Each structure stands twice: as structure tokens, then as C-alpha cells.
């Protein structure tokens, strides 16, 4: 029944267009979703895919973009450079997509952006927060590359100010994965802002994303007795390190960034910790309430309970709606025109209002969340 309704809507759009004698654009609009469905952080991929698919379904139910149906092409890009590059080449060269939503992880989005930009394919990363996603090494903006999230300079500043002003922290210990561009960028931004605000970094230790035993670093943390431990990594690493810290009797709270956001974050291990994020499902704005309800109606967890959309779902939904609005406004899928329309758009998303600065970065507020009593609870909002 539903399929029939959608098909007839598209047929109607075509009839109306031809009756008016207009040379309406025809054919489906393919959109690639590059998301880490496997690899170290699969919840990032599932939520991103589902948020984007929900937006696509809603647009198609309304007749698509100017009468053209949106067709998703989903690829598992694994939060890892090589698979992400392969996926990007596949969707561009074989599937002939002109639009990419993704990747999630900065270290995968950066190499994808080089390919997309050189082939005039528009890429909007919903969630990659590292500066280098939209700007090349010489400081030049990549014309066809955008993102729907704030960047880590802002995120690190918000985290540092919260540590100093609210937690009254005077000292911090930083743990850093030297193989992850996101972790390095966010750790640097935090350090800069924390020391500029009068805080002291009492230790800084490196590991790699493959490490599972953090005891050597945690012994140094125990000696340094910092007020906070800054660990700006993804939830899989946070789960391991925070659990081992608790076992060692370390009581200083962990702090981190958006990478913590996952239904699989170990809330017991990370209890007492704080992280900066893009959105909270507890936000009472009408659009957030409506989105949380619609998402939970569409997607269920393994117990059959409504899924709560995390920041990845919300930003993938926003990135998709942003792209479709730009294509509709441009009246064409010519990517040179669509990117110009995108650059000048003002868009009210679930994660807040999006307008782009000169580097194609939205200027947006950040949310601070606390891990408490086995749950993640809203703490506060910080405006740019
Ligand atoms: N910001 C992270 C990165 O750039 C990705 C991420 C965003 C992860 C939001 C979780 C939630 O790598």
C-alpha cells in the first residue's frame, strides 16, 4: 500500500511536469551513505545509516526532491581510511553518485574528502569534527565538502571551560591515541584552552587504538593525581580505560568528547564522567521531541523497545535534510550549483541551527552530558 502511494506520487509529479511543458529534471537521485557498520565502532554506523534513511523515507513519502526519488546506496566504511576510500571510489565510479553523506570518523572522512572534492562530488560528513575534513593542508577550503557538526577547536574549548569553571579542576591528565586524527585534534584543543584558562596538564600519555591494556598509563595517572582525566576517544576505548581506572581505585572523573556517544558506552565504567556532544534526546524543543518519537516508532532495539536516537542519528538526519533542501532549492542536481546553494543556506536542524562559515563549518552550540547512575543525563548547553 505504502509502496503504491509513493510510486503514484512520483508518477503524478512526472505527469504534472510534462503537462506544464516544463523540462523537469528526471531520474532518481542517488545518495551514498558511508558509515562504519563493522569495525571498532559499529553503533556509529547503524545510527548514522538509520538517521539518513529516515530522512530519505520522509522526503520520498512527500514526492522526493522536485519529483525525483532519492535512492540510498549504503556502504560499510569501517571508520578506517582504506575501506572508506574503497567505498568512496565504488559509489562514485560504479554507482555514479554525486552526493555522499559520511563518513562518521574524521580519519576516514579526510581521505574521502580528497577524492570527493577532486571529482566534484558533494560530501557532507554528519559528525567528523577534525578541522582537516573541510580544509586542505595549504589552508584552502575544499569547495565540495561540508559537515553538519561543530569542529574540535570549539569542542575542546567547551570541555576545558567546563572542567575549569564547573568542575573547578586545576589539573588534567590527557590520554591520547596517536593514530587517530580526531583524538589528536581534540586533545590539542583541550590542552590549549585548559592551560590558557590557568589549568595545568600534569601528564600526557599516548597509546594506539589497538591497545586493550592501559595499566602502565593508569599507574602514571594514579601518581599524578589529576582533578580530571581527558580521554577524547571513541566509546570502545573509553569502556576499557575507564573500567581499568575504576579497578585501580582512581576516582578522578574522565572527560571526553562526542566519540563517547553510543548506546554501548559502559555507563558503569564511565560513571561520574562528562562529555561534550552535539545534542541531547532530552532536549524539550518541539523538533527534538518529534524526532525522538518518530525515530523510536521506526527503529526498535533487540528487546523490541523504541530506540533513542543518539547524536549520530540526529546529525545524519540533519545532514541528509540539509543536502536535500539544497538540491531542491538549487532546482538541479548539478553539484557546482548545489554546493553554492548549500554554502548560503540557513537550516533549522534537530541539532540546532546550521549556517556555514567560510570553511564550511557550522557554528553551533554544544551540549554537556553526564554519565550518572547507569544513564547519560543532560547537564548544560554552551553557545559559541
Ligand atoms: N567527531 C568524531 C570524529 O570526528 C566522530 C563522532 C561524532 C563520534 C559524534 C561519535 C559521535 O571522529
How many DSSP-defined strands?
14
Spatial order of strands in the largest sheet: 7-6-8-9-10-13-14
Helix content: 40-55%
Number of helices: 11
What is the CA-atom radius of gyration, in angstroms? 21 Å
Q: N- to C-terminal separation? A: 47 Å
Structural features, described:
The longest helix is centred in the N-terminal third of the chain and has 20 residues, at 42-61. With 384 residues, this protein is an alpha/beta fold. The strands form three sheets. The chain has a seven-stranded mixed beta sheet, sandwiched between helices. Strand 1 (29-35), helix 2 and strand 2 (70-76) form a beta-alpha-beta unit. Helix 5 (152-166) crosses helix 6. It contains eleven helices and 14 strands. It has two domains: 29-150 and 284-364, Response regulator (Rossmann fold); 153-277, Rossmann fold, CATH 3.40.50.2300. The structure holds phenylalanine. Phenylalanine is lined by residues 44, 104-106, 127-130, 182, 258-259, 261, 311-312.
Keywords for this structure?
single chain; alpha/beta; Rossmann fold; 2 domains; 7-stranded mixed beta sheet; 5-stranded parallel beta sheet; 18% strand; globular; disordered N terminus
Topology:
Blueprint: H1 2-19, E1 29-35, H2 42-61, E2 70-76, H3 81-94, E3 99-102, H4 106-118, E4 122-125, E5 145-147, H5 152-166, E6 171-177, H6 181-196, E7 200-207, H7 215-224, E8 228-230, H8 235-247, E9 254-256, E10 274-277, H9 286-298, H10 311-330, H11 335-343, E11 347-349, E12 352-354, E13 366-372, E14 375-382
Parallel strand pairs: 1-2, 1-3, 3-4, 4-5, 6-7, 6-8, 8-9, 9-10
Antiparallel strand pairs: 10-13, 11-12, 13-14
Helix pairs in contact: 2-10, 3-4, 5-6, 10-11
The chain binds phenylalanine (PHE).
Phenylalanine is lined by residues 44, 104-106, 127-130, 182, 258-259, 261, 311-312.
Amino acid at each position: 500500500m505504502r509502496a503504491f502511494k509513493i510510486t503514484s506520487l512520483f508518477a503524478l509529479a512526472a505527469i504534472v511536469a510534462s503537462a506544464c511543458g516544463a523540462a523537469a529534471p528526471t531520474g532518481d537521485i542517488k545518495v551514498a551513505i558511508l558509515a562504519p557498520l563493522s569495525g571498532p565502532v559499529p553503533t556509529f554506523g547503524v545510527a548514522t545509516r538509520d538517521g539518513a534513511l529516515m530522512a530519505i523515507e520522509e522526503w520520498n513519502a512527500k514526492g522526493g526532491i522536485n519529483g525525483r526519488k532519492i535512492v540510498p546506496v549504503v556502504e560499510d566504511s569501517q571508520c578506517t581510511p582504506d575501506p572508506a576510500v574503497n567505498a568512496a571510489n565504488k559509489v562514485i565510479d560504479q554507482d555514479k553518485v554525486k552526493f555522499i553523506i559520511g563518513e562518521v570518523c574524521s580519519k576516514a572522512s579526510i581521505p574521502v574528502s580528497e577524492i570527493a572534492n577532486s571529482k566534484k562530488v558533494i560530501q557532507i560528513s554528519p559528525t567528523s569534527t577534525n578541522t582537516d575534513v573541510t580544509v586542505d593542508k595549504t589552508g584552502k577550503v575544499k569547495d565540495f565538502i561540508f559537515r553538519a557538526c561543530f569542529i574540535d577547536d570549539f569542542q575542546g574549548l567547551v570541555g576545558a571551560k567546563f572542567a575549569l569553571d564547573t568542575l573547578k579542576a586545576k589539573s588534567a591528565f590527557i590520554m591520547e591515541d596517536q593514530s587517530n586524527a580526531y583524538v589528536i585534534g581534540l586533545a590539542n584543543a583541550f590542552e590549549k584552552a585548559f592551560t590558557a584558562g590557568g589549568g595545568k596538564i600534569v601528564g600526557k600519555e599516548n597509546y594506539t587504538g589497538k591497545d586493550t591494556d592501559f595499566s602502565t598509563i593508569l599507574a602514571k595517572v594514579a601518581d599524578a593525581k589529576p582533578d580530571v582525566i581527558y580521554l577524547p576517544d571513541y566509546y570502545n576505548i573509553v569502556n576499557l580505560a575507564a573500567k581499568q581506572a575504576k579497578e585501580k581505585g582512581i576516582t578522578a572523573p574522565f572527560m571526553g568528547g562526542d566519540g563517547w556517544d553510543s548506546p554501548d558506552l559502559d555507563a558503569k565504567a564511565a560513571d561520574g564522567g562528562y562529555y561534550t556532544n552535539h545534542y541531547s534526546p532530552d532536549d524539550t524543543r518541539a523538533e527534538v521531541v518529534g524526532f525522538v518519537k518518530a525515530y523510536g516508532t521506526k527503529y526498535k532495539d533487540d528487546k523490541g523497545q523504541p530506540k533513542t536516537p543518539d547524536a549520530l542519528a540526529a546529525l545524519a538526519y540533519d545532514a541528509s535534510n540539509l543536502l536535500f533542501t539544497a538540491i531542491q532549492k538549487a532546482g538541479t542536481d548539478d553539484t557546482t550549483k548545489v554546493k553554492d546553494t548549500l554554502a548560503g543556506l540557513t537550516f533549522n536542524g534537530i541539532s540546532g541551527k546550521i549556517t556555514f562559515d567560510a570553511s564550511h563549518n557550522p557554528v553551533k552550540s554544544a551540549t554537556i552530558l553526564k554519565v550518572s547512575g547507569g544513564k547519560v543525563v543532560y547537564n548544560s548547553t554552551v553557545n559559541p
